[in-house]
Amino acid sequence: MSQEIEHVQCLIIGSGPAGYTAAIYASRADLKPVLYTGMEAGGQLTQTTEVDNFPGYPNGVTGPEMMEDLRKQAERFGTDIRFGYVSSVDFSSLPHKVVVDEVKTITADTVIISTGATAKWLGLPSEQQYNGFGVSACAVCDGFFFKGQDVAIVGAGDTAAEEATYLAKLCKKVYMLVRRDEFRASKAMVHRVLNTANIEVIYNTEAKEVLGNGKNVTGLRTINNQTGEETDLEVEGFFVAIGHKPNTEIFKGWLEMDETGYLKTIPGTTKTNVEGVFACGDVQDHYYRQAVTAAGSGCMAALDAERYLAAKEDEVKVSI
Ligand code: NDP
């Protein structure tokens, strides 16, 4: 028995700020979008506690609350939000084909990809235990909570260098753990780190355990990977900045990506190399990675999709 295939005008994949904002705009433009949340409905922000830098919340908001607000706003205009994950796609011809939960096929005139990126973690049980209670993967989001305090950061790439200098402006002292005897970051960034008085770089050193009182972080146990010597640092915050992984596995072979797997878009737009397929949020941005920039690009993706459909309609009218 053949399975009935559902057709939609606009399919949105992912439910972070980019996906929900795309949904708000697409539903208001009457594209009747269907949004699949993915396995982590609400995206990375559901893993954070306070969000103080999203405009419109003068008293701050928790990540999960904000995502709930965005979901409700998208639903208010009729977005069909479904729990499920996209397991494969076929962008070889129009309409685009998308398989959900490995069983259901949907065809779509436009696809908006907002599958985000996932922060890499060290994999320590204590890191997981104190995630959101002193452990963070985003200095710009959470640095403010450690104003005037001592913190540690692990990583030696451009992100870690940038976040360490950001933290140094807010915190009393920043310990920076570099696992080799050199940085991966660009020379200019390393120069900035080494010339910041309150950053202490500790080479050949890794994080062994996040120390805490059961509620909050109180320190970090480090280990020198040359000598095996362990040292406890007294810190209130621990930032993990060892890179992100864009969630683009299912688009390999279909969409152009950079060497680290981020989707490529035509500058100034959300258009990918495939017509009718748009990308927004962290899946195409390894640079800003903020909720508000993701939301902004979600708006752009919906407008790009709407204009693409309108242009297609005009083409049909002209050819009649
Ligand atoms: P990178 O992959 O460049 O760097 C990751 C860093 O984390 C490396 O130094 C790596 O160490 C370290 N690391 C990985 N795993 C561990 C671990 N288990 N323990 C300790 N350290 C670990 O990621 P970034 O996020 O820094 O950068 C991603 C891309 O974005 C890069 O191309 C970067 O240039 C770019 N970027 C550019 C910026 C700018 O231009 N302003 C700002 C931010 C990012 P090791 O070196 O030993 O492998």
Molecular structure report:
This protein has 320 residues and is of the alpha/beta class. It folds into two domains: 190 residues, FAD/NAD(P)-binding domain (3-Layer(bba) Sandwich); 120 residues, FAD/NAD(P)-binding domain, CATH 3.50.50.60. Helix content is 27%, strand content 27%. β11, α5 and β12 form a beta-alpha-beta unit. The longest helix has 29 residues. The model has no long low-confidence stretch (mean pLDDT 95). NADPH dihydro-nicotinamide-adenine-dinucleotide phosphate binds next to α5.
Runs in which pLDDT lies below 50 for 5 or more consecutive residues are: none
Rg from alpha-carbon coordinates:
22 Å
> Main beta sheet: strand number and arrangement?
7 strands, mixed
- Overall pLDDT score: 95
* Quantity of strands, as a count: 19
**Broad CATH class of the largest domain:** Alpha Beta
End-to-end separation: 37 Å
CATH topology of the largest domain: FAD/NAD(P)-binding domain
State the share of residues found in helices, binned by percent.
25-40%
Share of β-strand residues: 25-35%
Ions, cofactors, ligands: which are bound?
NADPH dihydro-nicotinamide-adenine-dinucleotide phosphate
Mind telling me which CATH architecture of the largest domain this is? 3-Layer(bba) Sandwich
Number of helices: 7
Give the topology string: H per helix, E per strand: EHEEEHEEEEEHEHEHEHEEEEEEEH
Shape: elongated
Category by helix and strand content: alpha/beta
Count of domain modules: 2
CATH superfamily of the largest domain: FAD/NAD(P)-binding domain
